[in-house]
């Protein structure tokens, strides 16, 4: 996970911020990977983030992180294509927790579109890909409204984010 910290720093240094809410999408010209955007008002139970994109032809990885500004990482999703794994973790007070990796299937296919939905519920995030539940991740960051940034990087093209 150490390489993700470097990516996060680079994203912040590039100042690639965009803001979006539940009702609006980020315009396609702003959907450049790596992407860093603000989640207006932070997260709360009942809020959903939808990420639509296309996996590159020869992908190695893709990463989606929900963070508290430049501090804690509430959810870090790391898709590793060679291993066919979807790793999840959180970093609170500069300490990474126990990594989770169990999934019922691997949904990402090179050169194919995908739709990832992240639902914020009271005790957890529920993550669906193409309408099928992939995993639950129980909150380790408890101040949900402090989760105000989304970062996306890796071998994909973004087509829609809302």
UniProtKB/TrEMBL annotation:
<dbReference type="InterPro" id="IPR001079">
    <property type="entry name" value="Galectin_CRD"/>
</dbReference>
<dbReference type="Pfam" id="PF00337">
    <property type="entry name" value="Gal-bind_lectin"/>
</dbReference>
<dbReference type="InterPro" id="IPR044156">
    <property type="entry name" value="Galectin-like"/>
</dbReference>
<dbReference type="InterPro" id="IPR013320">
    <property type="entry name" value="ConA-like_dom_sf"/>
</dbReference>
<protein>
    <recommendedName>
        <fullName>Galectin</fullName>
    </recommendedName>
</protein>
<keyword id="KW-0430">Lectin</keyword>
<comment type="function">
    <text>Does not bind lactose, and may not bind carbohydrates.</text>
</comment>
<feature type="domain" description="Galectin">
    <location>
        <begin position="35"/>
        <end position="162"/>
    </location>
</feature>
<dbReference type="GO" id="GO:0030246">
    <property type="term" value="F:carbohydrate binding"/>
</dbReference>
